[in-house]
Amino acid sequence: xxxxxxxxxxxxxxxxxxxxxxxxxxxxxxxxxxxxxxxxxxxxxxxxxxxxxxxxxxxxxxxxxxxxxxxxxxxxxxxxxxxxxxxxxxxxxxxxxxxxxxxxxxxxxxxxxxxxxxxxxxxxxxxxxxxxxxxxxxxxxxxxxxxxxxxxxxxxxxxxxxxxxxxxxxxxxxxxxxxxxxxxxxxxxxxxxxxxxxxxxxxxxxxxxxxxxxxxxxxxxxxxxxxxxxxxxxxxxxxxxxxxxxxxxxxxxxxxxxxxxxxxxxxxxxxxxxxxxxxxxxxxxxxxxxxxxxxxxxxxxxxxxxxxxxxxxxxxxxxxxxxxxxxxxxxxxxxxxxxxxxxxxxxxxxxxxxxxxxxxxxxxxxxxxxxxxxxxxxxxxxxxxxxxxxxxxxxxxxxxxxxxxxxxxxxxxxxxxxxxxxxxxxxxxxxxxxxxxxxxxxxxxxxxxxxxxxxxxxxxxxxxxxxxxxxxxxxxxxxxxxxxxxxxxxxxxxxxxxxxxxxxxxxxxxxx
Length: 512
What we know:
Oligomer: single chain
Number of helices: 24
CATH class of the largest domain: Mainly Alpha
Number of domains: 3
Number of strands: 4
Order of helices and strands: HEEHHHHHHHHHHHHHHHHHHHHEEHHH
CATH architecture of the largest domain: Orthogonal Bundle
Largest sheet: 2 strands, antiparallel
Distance between the termini: 24 Å
């Protein structure tokens, strides 16, 4: 989801910053600093000669590096891992693999931060360690394939945007399989690693297709493609032969995954049994009420219809939403995910909670009393959560207009979820992915690397769309439009367009 982490402005190209390591900076500066130093405060140049003032200046600068080491997209963490592994190839690749893995896990929630990924991983280990282990194997296979076989640049793999789909794919493989199969059959480990290899290959193919004309984010499309292949090819039935297609309440054939059931078939099948809820327990339940899920049946029990909404459980559903992405439905996991999002960006946390709240409230309004459990579990909330975060600060610079667009996107995403839910279609993250694609303004791909560096974003109508190579955090994005920079960038984009030999053909590919 996230483009490669950009190189630090003081980067020397060899993985080391000009100032050096975060923890060795003070020693190196003491060795090389002249007798008199200069500091810059708020853009004003002031000469300092007192040792006490120099110490305070170093302390202030180190605090800035300390924050950049842990928060945001953590650029200083990348500088530290590169510098620490500079003397040894083994140490370098070990640190590289750790950073790429943690950033990949964090990228599932738009958080390219290793500490956000670490918090999510801890949450997974608390709730379901077997699933976390199998998903990590899938991720391990994906990173090795990207580096050794596909030769994807290290900075691109390090950012996590290449392999975050692998962790999702490994999670679903483990959740679909019977619990007795995990760690007892080596076959599922091999299958998971093969899926990791194929997921990265699918990512590379789709990325080349979308990047050739427009800078279009893939989001979790490779994961959905791989999951459909896994289910419909019959591999999933090897490890859960009796129930693999009953996860949608359908047992006739694989083709029935996209088929709605008739009234007679719905009598003994729980309506709320969708894949994302199945990821929590994978236990099919039945109802003894005849035609209880047929909303047109006049014999429906009044006691069921008049059941009131438990608003405390609705609030709990808002906080459970992130864990539904990983199929756990665990409150501790969800809280750790929210903390990880806050470490990356407070604006992202606000947008995530806004989207989850919209999803739960609309879910209460559109659900019958027997379907409130889906709202309470957070299943209605995780798709609008991601749509709100994507449109409200991640791909678009955060302002009032992008905030309103994220609200609209969350509403439409929830309605899309409702339509798929009531048709017994596999929902997963498809509503979030489709609605984000539809509402995200498209921009043309840059002609060369220089154009990508100079154009951090492009104005499309009332919105400011970020270049994929310049995405960091919503807070950092807002600095791009401070001081009239937006006017400069927009004018440069127009001047570049005028110099093209066929500017009209370029305009024809841009969406209105």
